Amino acid sequence: MVNMKSREFPMTDANFDHIKNMAYDRTGIVLGDHKREMVYSRLARRCRALGVHDFDQYIHVLENRESDELSHFVNSITTNLTSFFRERHHFEFLEETVLPEVFKANSASKRVRIWSAGCSTGEEPYSIAITLARFLKNNLVRYKGWDVKILATDLDSNVLAKGKRGIYPNSGADGLSKSDRLEFFDESGQGNDHQLMAKDKIRNLITFNRLNLLHKWPMKGQFDVIFCRNVVIYFDKETQKVLFDRYANVLKDPGYLMIGHSENLHRVSTRFNALGHTRYKKIN
């Protein structure tokens, strides 16, 4: 075990256990002992910002109900690694198979809903929006006037704010094709200041909201597709079982679920049929 007493902000084993328990109670995230270095590094920034001298003082601030530190704590311990069209096979499957089936099934309501759960800084929902926009453009006459929306949620308010802005550095846009950049983004600046700003044609398809997946969900309608990728790896098996059961409950039939490349539903849920490449279809 690393000796934290020699660090800038002493962190005892009891401090770390307290932080682990609070993280689990508040977010469902499981912080194993191998995450101790990461936790220290991220929360040390909060200690500096608050002017506290050790983690005893930090925990005292964290437990003060009048403090807004809990929100900063959650933002600090959540990991937000994403990119445009990450795991591209999901978006190819969405465009070629899922959307034609979903639009046909919803011909009476003319309503389609997709949820990006754990959307991070927004690259995933914007990739979904681009895929949707291309599909609608290719079927303009047939689906003109349909009510099509994407819900993008995350626990971290900081990354949600970035998603809402829809502004990304050119250096982080490798997943976008040249044609997508031209059609769906405005560009400004040069060199290190070169930025891409999402155009209204995709921005208006997305609603960004803060949501703790383990708390009550305010959404009343059902979804046709849910993306929950590289999120449940932070949860234990029992929490995963509850979460995927809730996903099945809010998915239509037919309804599709996309999860991350390191995740699977084996011994977690029997309510989905595996289609390969971390793609699932609801069966009950």
From TrEMBL:
Any Pfam family: CheR_N
Enzyme class name: transferase
Protein species of origin: Litoribacillus peritrichatus
Domain of life per record: Bacteria
Lineage, top ranks: Bacteria, Pseudomonadati, Pseudomonadota, Gammaproteobacteria, Oceanospirillales
Alphabetic keyword roster: Methyltransferase, S-adenosyl-L-methionine, Transferase
All residue ranges annotated as the CheR-type methyltransferase domain in the record: 4-284
Tagged with keyword Nucleotidyltransferase: no
SMART domains: MeTrc (SM00138)
Cited CDD domains: AdoMet_MTases
Entry-linked InterPro entries: Bact_Chemotaxis_MeTrfase (IPR050903), Chemotaxis_MeTrfase_CheR (IPR026024), CheR_C (IPR022642), CheR_MeTrfase (IPR000780), CheR_N (IPR022641), CheR_N_sf (IPR036804), SAM-dependent_MTases_sf (IPR029063)
Catalytic reaction annotation: L-glutamyl-[protein] + S-adenosyl-L-methionine = [protein]-L-glutamate 5-O-methyl ester + S-adenosyl-L-homocysteine
Protein name: Chemotaxis protein methyltransferase
EC number(s) stated in the UniProt entry for this protein: 2.1.1.80
Function description: Methylation of the membrane-bound methyl-accepting chemotaxis proteins (MCP) to form gamma-glutamyl methyl ester residues in MCP.
